[in-house]
Amino acid sequence: MSGPIVAILMDDADRLSWTDRRHLLSDSLIDDLRGRYTVRFEPRADLANDEQARVRLLEGAQACITGWGAPHFTDETVEACPRLGFIGYAGGSVKAYICDAIVRRDIAVSSADIINAEDVSQTAIGLILTGIRGLVPRYLESRGERLPAYPSRGISGKTVGVVGAGLIGRKVMSFVRGLDVGLLLADPFLDGSQSAELGAELVSLDELARRSDVISIHVPSLPETRGMFNRRFFAAMKDDAVLINTALGDLVDQRALAHRLSESRIFAYADVIDPGQDETVLTLANFAYSPAVAGCLRDTQYRMGEFVVAEMDRFFAGEPLVNRFDFSKMAIRA
After folding, report:
1. Is the pLDDT of residue 1 over 60?
2. In which domain, by residue range, is 67 found?
3. Same domain for 303 and 271?
4. Proportion of the chain above pLDDT 90, given as a percent
5. Domain shared by 272 and 123, yes or no
6. Between 59 and 147, where is the model more confident?
7. 214 φ, ψ (degrees, to nearest 5)
8. Starting at the edge strand that comes first in sequence, how are the strands of the sheet with 38-41 ordered?
9. Are residues 39 and 144 in the same domain?
10. Helix residue ranges, H only, the chain
11. What is the pLDDT of residue 326?
12. What is the crossing angle of helices 27-34 and 302-316, to 10°?
């Protein structure tokens, strides 16, 4: 098939336990692409370790589709591909894949993080409702676990605190607004009027900790945010509050969280932990951990591949991209 040259910068090496190329970009989707584009795809190449193979694959390509588990771009690779104008990333955060040459040339980059955010927000919403009901503590008690007295409550009349108004935080707030709850938001990049448009009261992080019955974390991991949930924050929380982290583990001081959990009735749910920190939290009955299942799982990852293909179609049609990465916000993006 003649047409724009599209390089698929993925191979079939299963480098991640929770995904591989076929879940993100199926054979049938690649066949569909071949009906409209000149597709270059080398599934048996070792693209992660052979930069020359990556350059050969991308040489002359006008667009590239990549995704979770794929090799990162380097300045050398990008500079060797002067026709490259679009990169579609079938995964979550694309920031680590963007090298200086991509920014200098203002190559259009689109990420399927907008799709992954839907699944993460759904997980967070489920944990908000599960957490306030105390379903996990009740289950553990039925299995003979000894827990601190922990209440089962309804969500009506409670206060939900959301930290971070990015893609996921906004989706969570959209759902929470439909409940009979107070909604607090802590985000240093918003003002009161912007928070009001989201249906939330803008407060400081300390005030959110003091007033919230359920706290849901949705901030990126940056030098400024790592360890921001610390001993001071946990000390300010209500004794029967619920903490939910579907963001990243290094946002939380795990030693401080373990100390707070050991002395009170708060309950914490985490989809991620930081293996580089103290892991005492994993031994505590009022801490629940689900290792990285909040985002798109294998049976739904195809949606990310379909999204970046649709973005590429828009690029070649001269239409605006739905989720073009804004390089000017690199410093505050996940």
Report:
1. no
2. 5-115+297-332
3. no
4. 79
5. yes
6. 59
7. -135, 135
8. 38-41, 5-8, 63-67, 86-90, 108-111
9. no
10. 21-24, 27-34, 51-58, 75-79, 100-104, 113-133, 135-142, 167-176, 192-197, 205-211, 231-236, 254-263, 302-316
11. 94
12. 10
What letter would DSSP give residue 37?
S
| pLDDT tens column, 271-324 | 999 999 999 999 998 999 998 899 999 899 999 999 999 999 999 999 999 999
Query: What is the predicted pLDDT for the residue at 264?
Result: 80
* Residue 150 near residue 134 (C-beta atoms within 8 A): yes
Question: Do 236 and 313 fall into the same domain?
Answer: no
Q: Could you write out the DSSP letters of every residue in 174-198?
A: HHHTTSSSEEEEE-TT--HHHHHHT
Q: Is residue 50 domain-shared with residue 196, that is, in the same domain? A: no
**What mean pLDDT is predicted for residues 255-274?**
93
Check which CATH number belongs to the domain holding 175 and give it. Answer: 3.40.50.720
Residue 147 falls in which region: left (phi positive, over 0), alpha (psi -120 to 50) or beta: beta
Q: How many domains does the chain have?
A: 2
Radius of gyration of the chain (CA): 22
- Do both 132 and 55 map to the same domain? no
Q: Indicate if 30 and 139 belong to the same structural domain.
A: no
Q: What is the structure's pLDDT at 152?
A: 86
Question: Which residue, among 59, 54, 51, has the nearest Cα to 9 in the 3D structure?
Answer: 54
Same domain flag for 14 and 86: yes
pLDDT tens-digit series, residues 72-126: 899 999 999 999 999 999 998 898 899 999 999 999 999 999 999 999 999 999 9
Q: State both tokens at 119.
A: 């699944």
Closest CA to 8 of 31, 32, 36, 30: 30
> For the chain, what is the mean pLDDT?
93
